[in-house]
Amino acid sequence: GPAPLVIMLHGGGGNSENGLTMSGFNTLAEREGFVAVYPEGSGKRRFKTWNAGHCCAYALEQNVDDIGFISDLIDRLVAAGLADPERVYVTGMSNGAMMSFRIGRELSHKVAAIAPVVGAMFGDEATAASPVATLIITGELDKRVPSGGGNGSERGLRSAPNDMPYAPAHHAFSYWMDSNGCTGEGAPVTAPAYTLRQGAGCQAPVLWY
């Protein structure tokens, strides 16, 4: 029957094969019984990007309808009986994480949860129409998408891939706390490698590593 669906979005300059390799989800999908899908952004040759609203590069410049693309992809997999419409999850890396944030906002009626990894939001986003469980992972030492916000440093590029500075990482946490109706913040969990902050009294969970 229909299985949980995990959509893995590659990073900027990557491709679907790269997303498969870096995530290793095929092995996990076979073990856990979910469907893993690796869509590909747009661009020249094999260097693909997603239009996450203010990033990145080719997909942004060409105003590619990546929301329509992912929405149609979900619909096709559901119609084919492969995906459970109540268990659709989206994750991504860097530009793919930014796209995951956008999908959570604009397709909140189709996705149960998002898990953006080392991505960012921009600060001008409208509130999601309905709660979406959110797991955010950011890197304090990340120079390309810095946790403090700004444009970051992109080696080898003549211009920034984004047309608006990245918002600080705490903005994404606050945004999803508000969108998911959290009443407060739980006690943080600290460990040598990470700090976990999480919402309390939320309509859908919000976790930030």
List keywords for this structure.
alpha/beta, 6 helices, 209 residues
Task: Explain what this protein looks like in three dimensions.
The protein has helices spanning 16-23, 25-32, 57-61, 66-79, 95-106, 169-179; strands at residues 3-9, 35-37, 83-93, 113-117, 133-136, 184-185, 189-190, 195-200, 206-208. The protein is built from six helices and nine strands, in the order βααβααβαββαββββ. Strands 1, 2, 3, 4, 5, 6, 7, 8 and 9 form a nine-stranded mixed β-sheet that branches. It is α/β, with parallel strands linked by helices. It is globular, with a radius of gyration of 16 Å. A hairpin with a 5-residue loop joins strand 8 and strand 9. The mean pLDDT is 95. Helix content is 28%, strand content 21%.
Ordered list of secondary-structure elements with their pairings:
Elements: E1 3-9, H1 16-23, H2 25-32, E2 35-37, H3 57-61, H4 66-79, E3 83-93, H5 95-106, E4 113-117, E5 133-136, H6 169-179, E6 184-185, E7 189-190, E8 195-200, E9 206-208
Parallel strand pairs: 1-2, 1-3, 3-4, 4-5, 5-9
Antiparallel strand pairs: 6-8, 7-8, 8-9
